[in-house]
Design a protein that fits this description.
alpha+beta, five-stranded mixed beta sheet, 5 helices, about 220 residues, Muramoyl-pentapeptide Carboxypeptidase, domain 2, disordered N terminus, about 15% strand
Amino acid sequence: MMTQRPGMNFTHTCTLIWLLLTTACAMKMPQEQGTFKPADLVELTKIDSTLKLDIRYATANNFAGRPVYDQPRAFLQREAAIAVKQVNQELRPLGYGLLIFDGYRPWRVTKLFWDITPVNKREFVADPKKGSRHNRGCAVDLSLYDLKTGKEVQMTGAYDEMSPRSYANYTGGTTEQRRLRDLLRSKMEAHGFTVLPNEWWHFDHWSWRQYRINDTPFEAIR
């Protein structure tokens, strides 16, 4: 998580992040060899309008402290998106829906996150030299919300919290928090996703190896 130095105000912080993002834009993504499927990114809310979005990277409510997306939208490769829809449909009779925090992420944003994260917290961000499965459009960050209240449920830790409470097998928290975390995990795993051990909210679709690392901005996705 980014911390401000003494004497560093919010404006200075935003300027630093803007400069880092600009630098990331000028850098080249990892050059991958092999045969990959063409990207088929689809917008999640067009696959299932009942999915709820909380795209925090399009706001200042994230660990960067400022928006890093121009648009509050979420995309995945089509097969992964359909799997998310299926999970959402299975949860609804149980009284829950999926709350989407993030899907496809341009590579330059992964580079930014790496640059602003202290070394001792980098287990929670992807190395841009390798790229993220978010960059391939096959990773989704999500939680549950209560259909009756419309509110996000409480898990063992908060989204993007850089602490052991974020671990998928964290044994702390309440019994109900662990039950909901494990319910989400079991439903996602039943539809071809694998949880990231360090982040209970991050799930990779099995097809991630089939797609290249991508840096296309949201507004350019057709």
